[in-house]
Amino acid sequence: MYCEGGDFDCLPEGLARAQTMTFTCITFTEVLRAFTVRSFTENVFVGIGSNHFMHAAALLSVALTMLVTNVPGLMSDIFGFAYISWFMWLVSLAGACNSVFWGEMMKLVIRRRDAKNAQWDAMHDGFEAVLLEIRQVRQHLEKLEAK
User: Fold this and answer.
1) Is residue 95 part of a domain?
2) DSSP assignment, residue 58?
3) What angle do CA 11, 17, 21 make, to 5 degrees?
4) Treating both helix axes as pointing N-terminal to C-terminal, what angle do 11-36 and 86-146 enclose, rounded to 10 degrees?
5) In terms of residue numbers, what domain contains 80?
6) Which residues contact 10 (CB under 8 A, 6 or more apart)?
7) How many domains does the chain have?
8) pTM of the predicted model, to two decimals?
9) Which residues, other chains included, contact 2 with Cβ-Cβ below 8 Å and sequence gap of 6+?
10) Is 82 a member of any domain?
11) Which of 21, 40, 33 is nearest to 100 (CA)?
């Protein structure tokens, strides 16, 4: 933001824009987070259409956000927000999508770790089964030799 002159008249409007962008970013982050936290390991798109009430709540949250940030009396007088351009809306949405991205990356790491642990557990169980079989064969051979 650039202020012409030395009076810094543009600062209150810039602060209101920053607060509006922060509010929209946090709101969109929470709306998207509601979809990502449905599972600790599954992808966000698995079963996304299964809960219609969640979709209604998300749409209501977005509608209320639009109302609070675009209705003149409500926006400026009560909340102290200012109009933001479409690009600022995109930046806010990108910030929200960033948190979804990192949440999904964390789920991917957890899924890979769980798959590796399952592989090691299967190998351990297989090794235990082989040892049990060897012990049984040895006992059988000892019985045959004793006869």
Assistant:
1) yes
2) H
3) 145
4) 30
5) 11-110
6) 1, 2, 3, 4
7) 1
8) 0.72
9) 10
10) yes
11) 33
As a three-state string, the secondary structure of 81-147 is: CCCCCHHHHHHHHHHHHHHHHHHHHHHHHHHHHHHHHHHHHHHHHHHHHHHHHHHHHHHHHHHHHHC
Domain assignment present for residue 52? The answer is: yes
Span 117-131, mean pLDDT? 90
35-61 per-position pLDDT tens digit? 999 888 888 888 888 889 999 999 999
d(CA 29, CA 38): 14
CA atoms within 13 A on the CB side of 44: 16
Q: Are 97 and 36 in contact (CB under 8 A)?
A: no
Q: How far is Cα of residue 20 from the mean position of the Cα atoms in its chain?
A: 22
**What does the alpha-carbon distance between residue 32 and residue 109 come to, in Å, rounded to a whole number?**
20
